[in-house]
Every structure is written in C-alpha cells, then in structure tokens.
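Pipeline run #58 for the internal structure catalog. This entry was flagged by the ingest filter as a single-chain record with no existing model, so it goes straight to prediction. Upstream metadata was stripped on purpose; only the residue string is passed forward. Reviewer on rotation: M.T. Logging verbosity set to normal.
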Amino acid sequence: MLFPIYMTIAIIATLALGASRVDEAPANRASGFKACFALLANPFVLLCFVAIMCHVGIDVGTNTTAPKLLQEHLGLTLTEAGFATSLYFIFRTAGCFLGAFILRKVSERTFFALSVALMAVAMAGFLTLHSQTALYVCIALVGFGNSNIFPITFAQALKACPDKQNEVSGLMIMGLFGGTVFPLAMGYASDAVASQWGAIAVMAAAVLYLVYYTTRIKA
C-alpha cells in the first residue's frame, strides 16, 4: 500500500521539478575525482563528508537493524517486524516534507541540532527500552530526525566552497558509500556481542559524531 503512495509522491515531485526553471552558470570544465578529493584538505568540507557518511549509515543501519531488534526483544516474526521499516520511511518522508517549512522559520543549525537530539534520544531508547510501543517511537524518532541531515549538510558544504559547487556536489554524493561501510561495522559489532546492541552502538557513535558536527555548523 505504501509503495503506490511513494510512487505518486515521486511522480508529483518529478513533474514539479521539471516545470521549475533553474538558471545555472555553465560549467567551465568537468570535475574529476582528483578535484573532488582535493576538497578534503578543507577541514570543514571533510567534516561534512563524514557527516554524510554517518547520515547514510544511520539510514541503512536502521532499515536493517530495527526489524532484527524487534525480533530479538519482542519475539516477533520477520513479517511482523518488517513493519519497522515502513514506520521508519513514513516518518522520514514526513520529516522531508515538513523540513521545507520548518527551515523557513528556524536556522539550519537549530533544526539540525533538534534532528540530532531526536536521534540521540532514540539511540538511548534502543539500548534501554524493550516494549513494542517504545521501540516503535524510537524508530519514528530516527526516521524524522535523520530526514533533513543530508540537505543541511550538503548546503553547508556548498556554502564553504561556493566557487567549487560541482566538486563539492560530487564529493558529498561519494559520501553515500557510508551506506556500505556502516552495515559492515554493525554486523561485526553485533556478532561480537551476540546481540543487536552492537549494531545500535555503531549507530550511536555516528549520532555522537553528528552532535559534534552540530557545533561546527555555520548559522
């Protein structure tokens, strides 16, 4: 039922974007890997790059870990626990939609701090709470909190190097490979402690990094 809804939203967004006029200055030259990676010498861009990795790691990690966590603590079947993924995306979608309006009223730094705070509360809840309702609330908090991390971080990186927008864009997209690194680390951590708490600990470390990154965001 959710997939037709997501498809409809995607089609509407595509049509709206296609009807929008975007004036961009023509690029003087194509940006290569060397030019993109050279930006990592900029400390703030490096912070943004790692923040993107953490964001994607939390995103992918929640999708893979939440159902297993419900199975481990509540004894749910895989089908029943699979609702966790849908719940996450419902609140992530809602966060993306509402974020556009919230950012018109508050600064990027304030909203980013609020988003990270929601995820920090969720991680603490995952480690200490075991009721079904509490775990669902934590999943929802991660979904909403993680929904606007990418666009805010991306915008911060572009502001740091306004004359290298192509290179910055390429580099930030490369940060999406955090979605492959974090699940691997989470798997090893879970095996090491024989519990999904290991995976939660890895995601909590990513959230802690975002807490630090919040202090470096430019208002």
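catalog note: The mean pLDDT is 89.
catalog note: The chain is about 80% helix and 0% strand.
status: ready for reviewer M.T.
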